[in-house]
Design brief:
about 425 residues, mainly alpha, two-stranded antiparallel sheet, globular
Length: about 425
């Protein structure tokens, strides 16, 4: 997949230098470990299917292994994102800052993020210590705390890489390290009672997020500050993190994402667009219809994940803009349909207004029962589909049709623009 379609952090950075020496070895080891964990996570369900089908038994603790593999792959993904400076953030303010202000924003946000990550690392280490004392076992004599070690190790590596990427020079990195150390010292040795520092802490967190701190720092930092203000142990945050990530239904998320990347790298997205374009491209509004169906079809295989946007966004946007749609309209069309896998679900937008039996509408079709679509139904979906089917706006204004008598006005029902209307005087059998 091309680099221009990959998610990037909001802050502008210089290109990463090529890894050499031991750094190259560490990078290769991390990549191989991540690929190995993904492969095991993919093969375990297949092994369970074969074993239960032919031998009527499965691998002991397979479900527990899958759940903890999700924990491992999540922390490994965070480590890789921190390594490549791809931790997602909400702010785009740093794109407009220049020179010293930009350096200040990077150092401050990275230092604050590193300090929050250190607290998350400490909470995870306390959780591992408590679980180790309970002597819980996963399966085959493997203790649970041994797998949980990935939590403090992962957060520790992320904190180090945040400080390393805070600046391009050692001077900036040392300033970021000093700020992160001051934050950690205040957390463990507050000068006043913690409840009086909750509001300043939240405001500082907000400033760091505006200046480019990652999303996980915003969520985890808010939880840490509130727990700290109430004098609650931060281990509860790590325990909640562990319980949520090891949910039995969560292994489907990385599997769906992996399937989406396989389809994207294999060229399935290009072939899918060619198929729908050959079938529907010649109709009015064909590019918009192709976008809707291609995104919905592809999303059903990727679990409504961002992989659909990465795989199809760069292909569909040029098609829509070449057809005359504006960039904003094209983005607004691609974005929501990449997250909704069932195109027929929009038919539920055809919700008619309930009418009173004592005063039926004169625009109702003869023989139509109450509650069915009629002349007064709320057809916002139909109007929206009409606007899509009309295609981009034309330079010449269209002449409005002559007014029709109320007895023969068309009933706005249906999805297709030309087959969606008929005179209300037609018999109900015409539906």
């Amino acid at each position: 997949m091309s680099d221009d379609l990959r998610p990037k952090t909001s802050a502008p950075f210089l290109p990463l230098p090529a890894a050499t020496g031991w750094r190259r070895g560490v990078r290769t080891a991390e990549n191989l470990l991540t690929a190995l964990v993904l492969a095991v996570l993919m093969l375990l369900p297949l092994e369970e299917i074969v074993m239960r089908k032919w031998f009527h038994s499965g691998l002991t603790g397979a479900t527990a292994f899958e759940q903890h593999l999700v924990l491992i792959i999540g922390l490994l993904g965070g480590m890789l994102a921190a390594r490549d400076r791809r931790l997602l953030s909400l702010s785009t303010l740093t794109n407009f800052l220049k020179d010293r202000w930009q350096s200040f924003a990077r150092i401050f946000s990275s230092a604050f993020a590193a300090g929050i990550t250190v607290f998350l690392c400490v909470g995870a280490a306390q959780l591992v210590q408590s679980v180790k004392e309970d002597e819980k076992m996963l399966a085959y004599g493997i203790p649970v705390w041994l797998v949980q070690l990935i939590m403090p190790a992962g957060f520790g590596v992320i904190a180090i890489r945040l400080l390393w990427h805070a600046a391009e020079t050692w001077r900036g990195r040392l300033v970021a390290l000093a700020l992160a150390a001051a934050l950690v010292w205040i957390g463990f040795h507050p000068l006043v009672t913690p409840d009086k520092l909750v509001l300043p802490g939240l405001l500082t967190l907000l400033a760091a997020v505006v200046l480019g701190a990652p999303i996980f720092v915003m969520l985890g930092g808010a939880a840490l500050i509130l727990f700290w203000g109430q004098d609650q142990p931060i281990t509860a945050i790590s325990l909640t993190h562990y319980s949520i990530v090891t949910n039995p239904t969560l292994p489907t998320v990385p599997l769906f994402t992996l399937a989406g990347y396989f389809l994207a790298e294999g060229g399935a997205s290009k072939r899918l667009i060619r198929v729908f374009n050959a079938l529907l491209g010649q109709f009015r509004g064909g590019p918009a219809i192709v976008t809707v169906l291609a995104c919905a079809f592809f999303t059903s295989f990727t679990g409504a994940s961002g992989v659909t946007i990465l795989a199809l966004g760069g292909l569909l946007l040029p098609v829509l803009m070449a057809a005359g749609y504006s960039e904003r309209s094209s983005l607004g069309l691609v974005r929501p349909f990449c997250w909704w896998p069932w195109p027929l679900g929009w038919a539920f937008a055809l919700v008619p207004k309930e009418e009173k039996r004592s005063a039926p509408s004169t625009g109702s079709r003869p023989g139509a029962p109450y509650g069915r679509p009629n002349g007064n139904c709320s057809c916002r979906w139909w109007r929206w589909s009409r606007s899509l089917a009309d295609g981009p706006r034309r330079s010449k204004p269209r002449l409005s049709p002559p007014a029709m008598p109320s007895s023969s006005r068309p009933s706005s029902i249906g999805i297709f623009p030309r087959c969606a209307t008929w005179p209300a005087s037609w018999p109900s059998a015409a539906c």
